[in-house]
Amino acid sequence: MTQPFGVVFDSCFRTKAWEEEEYKAYLCNTVTQFQETYPESSIMIFNFHEGDTKKNIHHILLEYYITIVDYPKHYEGCPLLTMEVIHHFIKSSESWLSLGQQTVLLIHCELGGWPVLAFMLAALLLSRKVCTSENRALEMVHKRAPKKDILPMMSTLNPLASQLRYLQYVLKRNADEKWPPADKELRLDCVIIRMIPDFDGKGGCRPVFRIFARDPLLHLEKSPKLLFSTPRRSPNARSYDQAESKLVKIDINCDVQGDVVLECIHWDDDMMKETIMYRVMFNTAYIKSNTLMLNHDEIDVCWDAKDRVPKDFKAEISFSEKYAITSMVPVDLSRFKGEGIPMEAFGKVQQMLSSVDWLVCKGFATLNGQHQTALSDIVNQVLENSFHRTGSSNLH
């Protein structure tokens, strides 16, 4: 091995659950094979996992003394992560790989995690300037999949529109802008729809909305919540017909901040059955002129429902401005000195951390072994385990 590189477990393409012993044998064989091939390598594993569950990879690899950092595998059902987490992933990846020629970043995801893993790898390719186009970056990653139809097997909605939007955010980092920008609180006033989708089979729909985001009033709470849902008795919960309504304005009036998921739902006539028409994920920091304009190709829809949305469809999300805050809390690294850590190891990891904005992120867990730790504790783990090993399925 002549240069640092990243690899992924090829289990990310799997669509069926593992038997416990089969999964254990797969992980151990992969790690052992990698260590034998690169005996001098230093390993860190990034694992995309579900919720707060402590999955088998931590227990199985405990004896290998490898630092494992967990990331979520979705954000409110979207195979995307928040700007804060994307920033952490990119900076820590780059800094780890820059430590020396023997460092390896091993990336693993739980069952169904390929869509978000592919997005994060594309973000890393853009940040390292391997690609300069968001479309090209995603294309390069998805070409590694053994089947072209693997994405629809793991995601009910086609997530590419929102993923490309977030990769455009990543490209702004390469333009030397302050990144990620401070969170900006806005009021989402209304949604204006031009050209009504056909979801009732009669040339129309009954559009209602749900909005998920962090609560702007709870600044220390990073977990997303349902901030708005159209009441069933609302006068906005009415049917619209393509022939009669070329333009529809639906009031919402909901304060939002940071990463936002907006879902447009169709209710049937008795308002009991619902069908998602489209979904959009965006970050308020990148809203220009208090408007987000979306066309037919800029919304996430079900794979078999694209034809229900007219080609000249447009949705205009209108905001009013409030104020900006920052949600980044730096970690004091000086307290790690004098704790019996070899100075050579401390020096190397301190060099890595000096270029990384290590954040105290409440929105995701950082784990090592069987115990959940604060994000700052990963510094100790990196210091203690800065030269251990692992691997599989190369992606440069």
UniProtKB/TrEMBL annotation:
Taxonomy, superkingdom: Eukaryota
Protein name: Uncharacterized protein
Organism per entry: Cichorium intybus (Chicory)
Lineage of producing organism: Eukaryota, Viridiplantae, Streptophyta, Embryophyta, Tracheophyta
